[in-house]
Write a structure and sequence with these properties.
2 domains, three-stranded antiparallel β-sheet, two-stranded antiparallel ribbon, 5 strands, about 15% strand, elongated
């Protein structure tokens, strides 16, 4: 009986070691896939429609706050169709799109690279989605493309690859109204 228990515990230990080694081998074998999957999951985080930091909570879907902040930004003038459209556009924004809209200059140039980072791809996709919402307009920018290509060639390469295309983003009037609404909501939350 003691021999059977000893043999059973020995086999159990061998099995746990073998399973641990097998798991370690599978993780090492699939490290690149797991790493890219983790990046994709992290890239999905900005789709959250609510922010909370240091006890301050910002909800982008609150139409009453959006209307109030837009009304304050327009100094009490009545809402026209464009202001209502801005409120509708803000309510459709994801967290990444709101961040991108708030950080865009009125006119700015951007490029899409062959080895873009996850954040660069997120910005590129956000730019396209903002254009669909008519908050920005994009125009091809061949001058920036030539400058970036020449700069990368002069440096002997780049970690983000070569530019595929470059474009200029222009914030539209609707985009400015949406920015005003977002800033107004943030201001109300902070007061």
């Amino acid at each position: 009986m003691a021999l059977a228990q000893t043999l059973a515990s020995f086999l159990k230990m061998i099995r746990s070691i073998a399973l641990s080694l097998l798991l370690l081998i599978l993780i090492v074998w699939n490290f690149s896939t797991l790493n890219s999957s983790a990046r994709e999951i992290i890239a999905m985080v900005p789709r959250i429609q609510q922010f909370e930091a240091s006890g301050v909570k910002l909800v982008l879907k609150d139409e009453v706050k959006l209307k109030a902040s837009l009304l304050a930004a327009t100094e009490g003038q009545a809402f026209d169709a464009q202001k209502r459209e801005a409120i509708g556009a803000v309510q459709k924004l994801s967290g990444a799109q709101a961040e991108r809209l708030l950080t865009l200059f009125p006119v700015s140039s951007h490029c899409d690279y062959t080895l873009a980072t996850a954040k660069m791809r997120l910005y590129f996709n956000s730019d396209a989605e903002l254009e669909q919402l008519r908050l920005v307009e994009s125009v091809a920018d061949p001058d920036t493309f030539e400058k970036e290509t020449a700069s990368i060639a002069a440096e002997g390469g780049s970690t983000i690859g070569k530019p595929r295309s470059c474009y200029r983003l222009i914030v539209t009037r609707l985009g400015y109204d949406a920015k005003s609404a977002l800033v107004g909501v943030i201001r109300q939350v902070l007061h």
